């Protein structure tokens, strides 16, 4: 009898303890969920509040978010081609990842015929035009973690670097000290802030530009961006379209001195510089050729028949002189012809930019005025096409002609707004598949049989020269940023942001 009573008491105790644990877990889960809801709900996570994710162990609905992955193999959340908007076009919460997913889209945002500004937007600048947004909310999600005024998710450093490249970011602040690391990047559609205090998690914040409002935006709602091409430009690699086998990496910026450019088949594996970034982000370094910068021996004279290029060096007041032989010249010309098309400039490897700009400068300057005039004529003759593509009629009439001509003639700049206008003007001449934009033959033909500047520009010549213009306006990016970052970061927004 005593044994039976003892066993019953133990069973009751175990059952009661289990019930207490389950109730405590449910209360904790509800508290975490209520925390997000009570501190703003939709204000925190936007549309993601209405898309629950269910916990298998607790059977409690929690707000959910997209698992953000971006790299060379997966693209952005599984897509290599995404569409970027300057401002959010759907409800985003204060949590940064919701804002990020409201400016990067699965598909091009539809272009509607534009009514007057006052009819198109309400008093707060929110779109009144009814159309179905290509939201990420239809994708698989994961529960998000909450704490007061924050709903955050975790991203890897390779995802962050890919996002910075995708949004054409450039560093405006970088400081490392005994208290930790802090950096700021400005991009086409927002500001990025990275903070990694000593002994605490690294946090990324993304904030859209407060100087832009929808009702005054005269540009099309979005533009396409290819994840793989953005990564390749940041890593300093030019990949020619099939069936060409050109896949070549460029050396970094060198100290002042004399250098010989040397082609090394499959030499990227032994290179120093962007190789590690390309490997981290999903690239196969063993498949990539390399242009190696070999220091030229002191006392030796450059061969008189070789071409010399003057490049910037690590010392801002001095230059680096590169001797380029015929084989390497052909590769530079092929690389210029195979620069990928982009509607905006690149966050680019500075060694690639230095070499290609030095190689192309004489030819580009020869054709610069002809290109500017040709694009200006395109705008005047096809303003109806621009309007159908989403450009505002008054902007087309009053501003685009001047922006096109003066931007090309400037020779350099850092405005992606101007680059979008110039590349759109160039596309007015193109009536072939868009894949054909990635390869021309202009630069290789110029190397073999230089043409006269007075010759009328063909569509292929316009595309080749416009890609050089994009190169001129591209922003250099530190490909060794991974040294400053941990393997994982939180992306969120704090009360002070």
Helices and strands, with pairings:
Layout: H1 2-38, H2 42-45, E1 52-54, E2 61-66, E3 70-71, E4 75-76, E5 81-84, H3 96-100, E6 104-105, H4 117-120, E7 141-143, E8 145-147, E9 150-156, H5 157-166, E10 170-177, E11 180-187, E12 190-197, E13 203-207, E14 223-226, H6 227-235, E15 237-239, E16 247-249, E17 257-264, H7 275-280, E18 289-295, E19 307-312, E20 319-324, H8 326-337, E21 347-348, H9 350-381, H10 383-388, H11 393-398, H12 400-410, H13 416-427, H14 442-448, H15 459-472, E22 475-476, E23 488-491
Parallel strand pairs: 13-23, 16-18, 17-20, 21-22
Antiparallel strand pairs: 1-2, 2-7, 3-4, 5-6, 5-14, 8-9, 9-23, 10-11, 11-12, 12-13, 15-16, 17-18, 19-20
Helix pairs in contact: 8-9, 8-14, 9-12, 9-15, 12-13, 13-15
């Amino acid at each position: 009898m005593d044994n039976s009573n003892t066993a019953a008491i133990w069973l009751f105790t175990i059952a009661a303890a289990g019930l207490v644990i389950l109730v405590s877990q449910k209360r904790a889960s509800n508290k975490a969920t209520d925390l997000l809801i009570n501190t703003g709900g939709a204000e925190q996570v936007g549309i993601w509040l209405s898309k629950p994710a269910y916990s298998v162990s607790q059977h409690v609905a929690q707000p959910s978010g997209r698992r953000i992955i971006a790299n060379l193999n997966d693209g952005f959340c599984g897509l290599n081609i995404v569409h970027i908007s300057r401002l959010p076009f759907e409800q985003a919460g204060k949590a940064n990842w919701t804002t990020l997913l409201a400016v990067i889209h699965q598909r091009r945002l539809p272009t509607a015929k534009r009514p007057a500004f006052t009819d198109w937007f309400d008093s707060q600048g929110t779109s009144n035009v009814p159309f179905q947004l290509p939201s990420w909310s239809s994708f698989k999600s994961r529960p998000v973690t909450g704490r007061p005024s924050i709903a955050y998710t975790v991203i890897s450093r390779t995802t962050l670097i890919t996002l910075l490249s995708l949004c054409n970011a450039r560093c405006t602040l970088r400081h490392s000290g005994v208290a930790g690391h802090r950096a700021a990047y400005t991009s086409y559609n927002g500001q990025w802030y990275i903070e990694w205090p000593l002994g605490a998690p690294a946090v990324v914040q993304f904030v859209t530009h407060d100087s832009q409002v929808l009702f005054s935006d005269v540009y099309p709602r979005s533009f396409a961006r290819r994840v793989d091409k953005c990564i390749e430009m940041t890593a300093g690699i030019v990949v020619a379209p099939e069936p060409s086998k050109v896949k070549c990496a460029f050396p970094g910026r060198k100290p002042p001195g004399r250098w010989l450019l040397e082609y090394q088949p499959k030499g990227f594996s032994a290179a120093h510089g962007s190789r590690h970034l390309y490997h981290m982000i999903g690239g196969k370094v063993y498949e990539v050729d390399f242009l190696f910068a070999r220091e030229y021996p002191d006392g030796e004279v450059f061969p008189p028949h070789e071409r010399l290029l003057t490049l910037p060096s690590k010392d801002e007041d001095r230059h680096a002189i590169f001797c380029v032989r015929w084989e390497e010249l052909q590769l530079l010309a092929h690389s210029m012809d195979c620069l990928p098309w982009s509607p905006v400039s690149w966050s680019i490897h500075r060694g690639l930019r230095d070499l290609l700009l030095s190689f192309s400068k004489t030819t580009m300057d020869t054709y610069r005025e002809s290109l500017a005039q040709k694009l200006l004529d395109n705008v005047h003759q096809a303003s109806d096409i621009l309007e159908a593509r989403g450009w505002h009629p008054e902007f087309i009439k009053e501003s685009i002609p001047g922006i096109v001509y003066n931007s090309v003639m400037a020779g350099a700049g850092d405005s992606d707004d101007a680059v979008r206008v110039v590349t759109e003007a160039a596309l007015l001449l193109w009536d072939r598949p868009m894949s054909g934009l990635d390869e021309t033959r202009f630069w290789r033909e110029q190397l073999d049989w230089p043409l006269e500047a007075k010759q009328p520009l063909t569509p292929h010549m316009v595309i080749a020269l416009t890609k050089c213009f994009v190169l001129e306006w591209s922003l250099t990016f530190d490909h060794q940023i991974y040294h400053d970052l941990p393997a994982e970061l939180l992306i969120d927004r704090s009360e002070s942001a």
